[in-house]
UniProtKB/TrEMBL annotation:
Matching SUPFAM superfamilies: TorD-like
InterPro entries in the cross-refs: DMSO/NO3_reduct_chaperone (IPR020945), TorD-like_sf (IPR036411), TorD/DmsD_chaperones (IPR050289)
Species, as recorded: Acidovorax facilis
Protein name: Molecular chaperone
Keyword set, alphabetical order: Chaperone
Record keyword Zinc-finger present: no
Leader peptide range in chain numbering: none
Keyword Chaperone: yes
Coiled-coil spans in chain: none
Amino acid sequence: MSAQPASLTHPGGSSALDEETARAELYGLLSQLYYAAPSAELLSALRVAVTEAPADGAFLQEPWQVLVGAARELSDAAIAQEFDRLFGGVGKPEVFLYGSHYLSGFLNEKPLARLRTDLDRLGLARDDSMSETEDHIAYLCEVMRYLIAGDDVAVCNLTAQRDFFATHLQPWVLQLCDALAAQPQARFYAALAQFTRAFVAVEAQGFDMLD
């Protein structure tokens, strides 16, 4: 999970290079926020992030402002407690973060096996230090960040991004957002779900333009 909190800016940019950098940073941010309760450093960076888009009416501006606002309103401890209530605890969590759950109704099922096959084709494998399975939303966002920002042009290209997104994220991530939005105790993570939904919509629209 390697996005740099210090580089957080408002999503958007003035050039294609800026846009690709912003996309990679946002996937990295989502990866960090969904993987664990955010660090004090990450929250500090998020609270001072720019919230005005370069152009009026930018689609991500409002959900980004809501997310930054939630970070500013809540303490580090409150956000950590919310993460634990929603995703942690003993037994079944309030909200699952695994694609297999939404695609098949069970964990560690065929969608995970297919994902592992595709990751192997991309030359990627889960780090042994990571306790979660590869279909965790954080892992998938980190793969997308790599496919955007990585140096291996054989796999780090728009076609690979589109295919991975369409196969392993798009079919279920909105269900995750719905699950978070339905949780009455979710404040910061409801805002994160709202931003995730908007960001995924922008990504899907961009990939559709490649066809």
